Amino acid sequence: MNLKTVLILLGLALATIFALVCVLLTRERSPRSCQQLAPEQEDMEDGQSLVFADLTAEEMSQVVRYLQGHLGVPLVEASRAKPGDNCIASVDLQVPPKAEVLRFLDAGGARPPREALAVLYFGKQPEPNISELVVGPLPVPAYHRDVTVQRYGGKVPYHRRPTLAVEYKQIGGFLKSQAFPSAPAFMRQVMEYDGSNLAVVAAAPRGFQSGDRVSWFVLFQNVSGFFVHPVGLEVLVDHSSLDTSQWAVSRVFYNGQYYRDMAELESAYVQGRVNVEKVRRAAWDGDFSSMKPRAPPAALFPLQFEPQGRRYSVRNNHVLFQGWSFAFGLSVSTGLRLFDIRHKGERVAYELSVQEALSVYGSNCPAGMSTRYMDGSFGLGRYTSPLVPGVDCPSWATYVDTQSLSDSLRPSKRKASLCIFEHNLGSPLRRHYSNLQSLYYGGLVNSALVIRSIATVGNYDYVWDFIFYQNGALEGKVQATGYPSSSFLHGDGLRYGNRLWEHTLGTIHTHFVNYKVDLDVGGVKNSLVAHDMAFEMTRAPWSPEQQIERPRLTKKVLDTEDQAAFRLHSKMPRYIYFAANSKNKWGHQRGYRIQITSFAGDHVPEASSMERAISWARYQLAVTQRKEEEPTSTSIYNQNDPWTPTVAFADFINNESITNEDLVAWITAGFLHIPHSEDIPNTVTVGNSVGFLLRPYNYYDLDPSIYSHDGVFFTSEQDLTACETNPLACLPKTASCLPNFPPFTFDGFRNM
């Protein structure tokens, strides 16, 4: 073997050894899988929170079977019901009275009977009506009672019923089989109608007076994001009769002109008297309205993970996190709601719940100018959408399936419709860097727990959050996204919004959201106290010839409901809080402060014939005595008869005493949306977020977050690289693990 061959073999051997060493070293440094440590707080709750739990699928089915067998009238499947049939519109949990629940939770009393609330449409009656029946006890029902008169003072007229999905389907059939054939040339040549290329959206409320059920239907190109593809045609349908054969077109609007019906539009078109503005047919993906990314994938966005597992626990409908505990549920009409919210073991709120989401539109087209959507009527819980891991919520979140029964005799499962996760907000909850006298740093990462649902009601998506902070503060927040509603751009349309595309007017509208906040601060009985600041003039004691304008604290107890009803544009004290009948170590009344984030303007003029139906929106804050007969600020029946509202919130405020009483705060937050070109393809959440904070105010003797394990403190004299001194120095070790991200799943397109 010559020298050259020996050298080559030696070189190959050295290269092999080097490669093996690199592999071994790499293996030694490769991160391990993250360890799952048990949460510090063990959930010792013995099922008490189930008193607030949503109905199970089996319970809903039992209620349906009971109603089918005990009402003495036939019940038609709601998805196939005609307006003149009897059917079950929805079944939901009947939350027990608060006094019974508190006896059970706090005093060892009996568990309240578990009951359901069923909403039924009785169309096949001499006097058609809507009835609300409480059915119980679950899981095996044995009784029912009609609570309609007790709740509303009388029977609810049938015309107020929220519109079922099947009624929209029937109206679509009417348009397709009767209305559109009356204008064959116009529909074929102008609309290029082929039986499936047009989508329809309904405006609401439906008319101008009680008893009306006359709706404007706007036509759009049936493509992805159709809400911004108007074609200029709107049809007013009178569907008030329980006999669908009696339905009729009352008016037609096309490109700025009104016609008696489709036949008159056809006649005018054939005679050349219609100003035709033909819309270019969009591709199936919507073209400009498509949400398909316009850029290829690149570097992945940043991710968070839990290196030592979840620091919260979810058991049934009960959550524990960093001193917080609460029960959660999802109402068919109002969506996400929380009960029995406690911090450090003490209840601070009995109920936090969404009440209503209102949008008031403007336009020079008939549907747009008459739209006042009250989304609770459509169902903020009914239209809770499945959540996409990694976008709607973090991949590592806990996803919760929920059950609902509406427009059907069978419950349906909504997969991953709630999520719960801890979130590092990337900023300090508190911190201080000292370079005077002593040198030190102290801080606390702002890591909070979020519970979220997202409701997609038509064009809009509402992201509903309740957020729990380590300092005892709690936030309720809603972010609006989805597609803006639009009208066909014509005439003076730019008085009512901005042009978004060739024929698309993004119509001006408002968003108002109402919350119910039943605080129990240091007990059920509270008072409402306002603190603020005023300047006072005083002489400088050390220099009497000089004046000083100094701020001083102002204090006022608000004794009555009238004093505690703050109109939208009125000046509200900057510190307003529920005060307990106990004091902290420093002699101050313990309290929880209400802080509202809102940019709301006027809802509608109070002279409007429908204003009382949305009178909760008059007030940025109203505090009333809590009453079982005033469970909600509005009603699902107000949408279709706002002129004679079933519930008028303004009637809750009648100057009753709110001193040392069980109180409820009704909070309204909102903003104005003038759609603009950046709302294409759809609206972003940034800047479209409002809500409120509940913050401890002298409730504790000091900030409770000082006891958080996440705190960091070190001085100039300490070894900052020692884990015992500085937990941040441990991150390379404690966080050098591979997160176990679950495989991506999404069931949102099943069982539609």
What does the model show?
This protein has 752 residues and is mainly beta. The chain has three domains: 48-155, Nuclear Transport Factor 2, Chain: A; 165-289, Nuclear Transport Factor 2, Chain: A, CATH 3.10.450; 312-697, Copper amine oxidase, catalytic domain (Beta-galactosidase, Chain A, domain 5). It is built from ten helices and 36 strands. The strands form four sheets. It has a 26-stranded antiparallel β-sheet that branches. The chain has a five-stranded antiparallel β-sheet with strand order 7-8-9-10-11, covered by helices on one side. A hairpin with a 2-residue loop joins β13 (318-321) and β14 (324-331). The longest helix is centred in the N-terminal third of the chain and has 27 residues, at 3-29. The termini are far apart. The model is unreliable at 23-28 (pLDDT under 50). This is Amine oxidase. It is an enzyme of class 1 (oxidoreductase). One of its GO terms (cellular component) is plasma membrane. Pfam families: Cu_amine_oxid, Cu_amine_oxidN2, Cu_amine_oxidN3. The active site is at 375 (proton acceptor), 460 (schiff-base intermediate with substrate).
The main β sheet shows up as: 26 strands, antiparallel
Kindly report how far apart the N and C termini lie: 77 Å
Q: What percent of residues are in strands?
A: 35-45%
CA radius of gyration = 30 Å
Give me the count of strands: 36
Percentage of helical residues? Answer: 10-25%
Q: Find the structural class using helix and strand composition.
A: mainly beta
What are the segments in which pLDDT stays under 50 over at least 5 consecutive residues? 23-28
| Assigned CATH class of the largest domain | Mainly Beta
Give the full name of the CATH homologous superfamily of the largest domain.
Answer: Copper amine oxidase, catalytic domain
Q: Helical stretch count?
A: 10
Q: What's the average pLDDT? A: 93
So what's the overall shape?
globular
